[in-house]
Amino acid sequence: MTPILERATDLHFRIWAEFRTMPGLRLTRDQACRLFGGESNKVVEALQDLVDAAMLRQFGPYYVRADLGNFTA
Q1: Coil vs helix vs strand at 4
Q2: DSSP letter string over 16-62?
Q3: For 9, what's the count of Cα atoms within 13 Å in the CB-facing half-sphere?
Q4: 50 near 15, Cβ under 8 Å?
Q5: Which of 61, 46, 59, 39 is nearest to 16 (CA)?
Q6: 35-61 pLDDT, tens digit each
Q7: Which of 20, 43, 22, 47 is nearest to 33 (CA)?
Q8: pTM here?
């Protein structure tokens, strides 16, 4: 387990659960902050942790699952 996942919070798991259950989901930072609520800096930090753990990718302004191949608009 990576150090990022060892310190995962409920927010990390909630974000990943949304992306796992909706494989085509793509969110901007602002959309994710609205969807997941709470402090926007915590949401952005969790998103970056998931990118660093190779669970999500960031394409321009969008966060998407890392295991789905190429991004298409």
Answers
A1: helix
A2: HHHHHHSTT--B-HHHHHHHH-S-HHHHHHHHHHHHHTTSEEEETTE
A3: 9
A4: yes
A5: 46
A6: 999 789 999 999 999 999 999 999 999
A7: 43
A8: 0.85
